[in-house]
Amino acid sequence: MLDELMVRKAIKGDEDSFMVLVNQCKEQIYRTAYAYVKDENLALDIVQETVCKAFISISKLKEPKYFNTWIIKIAINISISAYKKNQKVICMEQGELLNKVGVDEDNNEKLYLLQAIDTLPDKHKDIIILKYFDDLTIQEIARVLDMPLGTVKTYLNKGLIALRIYMKKEVV
Question: Which residues form the RNA polymerase sigma-70 region domain (predicted)?
Answer without folding.
Answer: 21-88
